[in-house]
Design brief:
single chain; Jelly Rolls; 5-stranded antiparallel sheet; 10 helices; DNA-binding transcription factor activity
C-alpha cells in the first residue's frame, strides 16, 4: 500500500565552498512531498526542520545555502489530500512543518537516529499508520492523472471533461482540491516533464522535434513554457541540466 501514496525516498548531500557557485534550482513538478533538512556535522545527522510541501507553479533558485544534507519523500499527486485530509490548494507553493500534522515531534524522534536508513524506517512507519486511516483513494482523480500521462502529447481539458462526463468547472474544482493545481496547469506540467525526459535521453535531432512531438504550437511556445516551468530555456536545459533527485537541478 505504501507505493500507492509514496513514489520514493531520496537523499541529497551538497558540499560547496561559497554561495557564488551555480544555484540550486527546482523546476515545476507534478508531485508534493516531505523534505528534511540536516546540519552537516561529522558526528552525525542533526535535523533542522521537516517540512511538507505542496504543488509548485513557478521554479525556484537558491544561492543562500552552499552546503546541506536533505532527505525527501516524493508523494503521488493526490497523496497530500488523501493522507492529511486537507485541501491541497492551500499548500500550493507553500511549506508547513510536518509536526503540525502529527501528535508527535519528528524532530525529537529523528534526533535519536544515527543514520539515514533508520530515519527512513521512522518515516515508513509514519506513512503506514497514516495509510491505515485512509478511508479510500479518489479513483476518479487517479484515472484522470493516468489519462493525462497516457495522452500527454494531445490531451486537452475538453477531452477530459467529455471522457468523464464532467463540467470544466467541476473538474477544475476537484483537481484544485485534491492535487492543488488546475487541469490546464497539470497538463502543462506533465507535458514539460515528458520534454525533460526527451532532453535527458537525447531522443531528438533538434529542439523543434520535441516541440512537434509534444504538440506545442511551435518552438517559441515550447521555449516559453520551458522557461516558465524551469527558469531555463531548452538549450540551457540541454547543456547544463543535472537533475539529481526529484525536481532539483544542480
Amino acid at each position: 500500500m505504501l507505493r500507492s501514496f509514496v513514489q520514493y525516498f531520496w537523499t541529497l548531500k551538497v558540499e560547496r565552498s561559497t554561495t557564488n557557485e551555480s544555484p540550486i534550482r527546482t523546476f515545476v513538478d507534478d508531485s508534493s512531498g516531505i523534505v528534511m533538512e540536516f546540519a552537516l556535522d561529522p558526528e552525525g545527522y542533526f535535523p533542522k526542520r521537516t517540512m511538507v510541501y505542496g504543488q509548485t507553479t513557478t521554479p525556484t533558485e537558491n544561492r543562500d545555502n552552499p552546503s546541506f544534507l536533505a532527505l525527501g519523500v516524493l508523494l503521488h499527486p493526490a497523496a497530500i489530500h488523501e493522507l492529511f485530509g486537507m485541501n491541497a490548494h492551500e499548500l500550493t507553493n507553500q511549506r508547513i512543518r510536518l509536526d503540525e500534522f502529527s501528535r508527535i515531534s519528528f524532530t525529537d524522534i529523528i534526533s535519536s537516529k544515527k543514520n539515514i536508513p533508520d530515519i527512513i524506517q521512522v518515516l515508513s512507519a509514519y506513512f503506514a499508520a497514516k495509510i491505515a486511516d485512509v478511508k479510500g483513494q479518489d479513483t476518479f482523480i487517479r484515472h484522470c492523472i493516468q489519462h493525462i500521462k497516457n495522452r500527454v502529447e494531445t490531451v486537452t481539458v475538453k477531452e477530459l471533461c467529455d471522457c468523464y462526463s464532467i463540467s470544466e468547472r467541476q473538474l477544475e474544482r476537484k483537481l484544485l482540491t485534491i492535487i492543488g493545481v488546475t487541469p490546464r496547469h497539470y497538463i502543462k506540467t506533465i507535458r514539460f516533464k515528458k520534454a525533460l525526459t526527451l532532453i535527458a535521453g537525447k531522443s531528438f535531432n533538434k529542439l523543434s522535434d520535441i516541440a512537434y512531438q509534444l504538440n506545442y504550437f511551435d518552438q517559441a511556445h515550447f521555449i516559453r513554457q520551458a522557461k516558465d516551468l524551469s527558469g531555463l530555456n531548452p538549450k540551457l536545459l540541454q547543456s547544463q541540466m543535472n537533475i539529481k533527485v526529484a525536481n532539483i537541478i544542480l
